[in-house]
TrEMBL record:
The keyword Disulfide bond applies. It is an enzyme of class 1 (oxidoreductase). Pfam families: Pyr_redox_2, Pyr_redox_dim. Belongs to the class-I pyridine nucleotide-disulfide oxidoreductase family. InterPro entries: FAD/NAD-bd_sf, FAD/NAD-binding_dom, FAD/NAD-linked_Rdtase_dimer_sf, GSHR/TRXR-like, Pyr_nucl-diS_OxRdtase_dimer, Pyr_OxRdtase_I_AS. The keyword Mitochondrion does not apply. Residues 124-446 form the FAD/NAD(P)-binding domain. This is glutathione-disulfide reductase. Residues 466-546 form the Pyridine nucleotide-disulphide oxidoreductase dimerisation domain.
């Protein structure tokens, strides 16, 4: 899943169920009310309410002197206190600050007992990885008066051991290029819809894949340039190359050593492809965003949000699409009724689901076509086989083990509630920690870290009621608890659902429908969760989450 876009005011979106437009004549609208009492078999999740966290204003020059006297390991509180602030992952606009200040490249380091002699560092903060979290933390730290450097690999649309790019996954290989391709793919459905509204075409509309790829890549180049300017305008030094930690205060970038009082790791994650026979013939989500030609027939292995989003993209661009999942339903962890509904809607658009099938091997034929062998048999004739089987933190070859940074079995860096690793001077934010892998969350974590380190204001990220979206077709928006989670946590709940045919579909003649679900605490009438699948779901849920 990727982050919800910023709220957009749209008059047609203001009415969810009771606005100015009544149900269309002939539409089948069903609203059911379910009252559940079952403390032993119920559902869970918590509230809403987030606050915007915008870029801080530049502090006075004396702030550098103030924090220079702090110990190397910031003494964070072990219990909540009045100065523990909470940040929320709501999406804020960029605030550009043109900074004019003297750079400070050395700081005084003291141990907690004051016995360590003074040390001089090249930077107050050195960030490895210029993705969403790293850029946010670095920019805010510089605005707070710290001297900051960021290292990042050279730009490429596909990441590797030697390529990356300023902007990270969301900007270069995730949210942005994916949404551009979603937009491109939706036109075929809209052409079909338009027939019922009187539009006629002399010939079948044709799509030019090379034009889409060229324009998409040009936009990515523009955006990575913007991110570089953001860092430069904040006074952050950008170093191109691969960073590796040498000791708790030293980073090696392609043979050159840099010292820093604090080191931040924000290198994100990478797609994961399981090792099966013939896996070298498969592509991942990075490659799927930059193919030289459109797939004619594609197998997508996986039932998560990435799999559904690419299935919608390729289906909309007229490819034949097959999804192979190990379970009976897609989107494990989502509300059960949402899982059922989105599967039904995607099937109606021509996507074929192969449930309870696990891939065992990929075979390449003499003509170049691919076959996928599963526990239930073999499907032949694919031009592409894509694995959307999750992502893994990008922590290999960073030198983390040698300096004592602890990681879990998947390679995710373990951090405390302030994003500090097991080494006091090393911190981590974003997907590399595998907490909540969403761009707004990484932004929140980066901003909180900058306040913790350089404003002497220990700040915990707030993970309550984080909204999320799946840009499948139809899309999904959700926030709060699923019905199942709410029962487990609250016991007695009320559930309100609506499954209806939207006004647009009455003339288009297409089988499009919308599903909405509200989960409420029966005792307090507190809204515990909102789940929606249908056109504009992401924007609608984002707006309601802000209430």
């Amino acid at each position: 899943m990727r982050q919800l876009p910023p709220p957009q005011i749209n008059s047609t979106n203001r009415c969810l169920m009771g606005g100015p437009h009544p149900p269309a004549q002939g539409s089948q609208t069903s609203i059911s009310y379910i009252y559940t009492k079952a403390r032993d078999g119920d559902r869970k999740r918590t509230n809403m309410a987030t606050t915007s966290f915008t870029a801080p204003k530049l502090s006075s020059p004396t702030l550098q002197t103030l924090y220079r006297n702090l110990p190397v390991s910031v003494p964070l509180p072990k219990t909540r206190s009045s100065f523990s602030r909470h940040l929320s992952p709501s999406i804020s606009r960029f605030h550009h600050h043109h900074l004019h200040r003297h750079r400070l490249f050395s700081v005084r380091a003291e141990s907690e007992n004051g016995a360590e002699p003074p040390r001089h560092y090249d930077f107050d903060l050195f960030t490895i990885g210029a993705g969403s979290g790293g850029v946010r933390a670095s920019r805010f730290a510089a605005n707070f008066g710290a001297s900051v450097a960021v290292c990042e690999l050279p730009f490429s649309t596909i990441s590797s051991e030697t390529t990356g790019g300023v902007g990270g996954t969301c900007v270069l290989r995730g949210c942005v290029p994916k949404k551009l391709m979603v937009y491109a793919s939706k036109y075929s459905h809209e052409f079909d819809e338009s027939n019922g509204f009187g539009w006629k075409y002399d010939a079948e509309p044709k799509h030019d894949w090379s034009t889409l790829m060229a324009n998409k890549n040009a936009e990515l180049q523009r955006l990575t340039g913007i991110y570089k300017n953001i860092l430069n305008n904040a006074g952050v030094i950008l170093i191109e190359g691969r960073g590796k930690i040498v000791d708790p205060h030293t980073v090696d970038v392609d043979g050159k050593l840099y010292t820093a009082r604090h080191i931040l790791i924000s290198v994100g994650g990478r797609p994961f492809i399981p090792e099966i026979t013939g896996s070298e013939y498969a592509i991942d989500s990075d490659a799927a965003l930059d193919l030289p030609s459109k797939p004619e027939k594609v197998a997508i292995v996986g039932g998560g949000y990435i799999a559904l989003e690419f299935a919608g993209i390729f289906n909309g661009l007229t490819s034949e699409v097959h999804i192979f999942i190990r379970q009976k339903k897609v989107l494990r962890g989502f509300d059960e009724e949402i899982r059922d509904f989105v599967g039904e809607q995607m099937s109606l658009r021509g996507i074929e689901f192969h449930t309870e099938e696990s891939p065992q091997a990929i075979v390449k034929s003499a003509d170049g076509s691919l076959s996928l062998k599963t526990n239930k048999g073999t499907v032949e004739g694919f031009s592409h086989i894509m694995f959307a089987t999750g992502r893994r933190p990008n922590t290999k070859n960073l030198g983390l083990e040698s300096v004592g940074v602890k990681m879990n079995k998947n390679g995710a860096i373990e951090v405390d509630e302030y994003s500090r690793t097991t080494v006091p001077s090393i911190w981590a934010v974003g997907d590399v920690t595998d907490r909540i892998n969403l761009t707004p969350v990484a932004l929140m974590e980066g901003g909180a870290l900058a306040k913790t380190l350089f404003q002497n204001e220990p700040t915990k990220p707030d993970y309550r009621a984080v909204p999320s979206a799946v840009f499948s077709q139809p899309p999904i928006g959700q926030v709060g608890l699923t019905e199942e989670q709410a029962i487990k946590e609250y016991g007695d709940i009320d559930v309100y659902t609506a499954n209806f045919r939207p006004l647009k579909a009455t003339l288009s003649g297409l089988p499009d429908r919308v599903f909405m679900k509200l989960v409420v605490c029966a005792e307090t009438n507190k809204v515990l969760g909102l789940h929606m699948c249908g056109e504009d779901s992401a924007e609608i849920v984002q707006d309601l989450q802000l209430l």
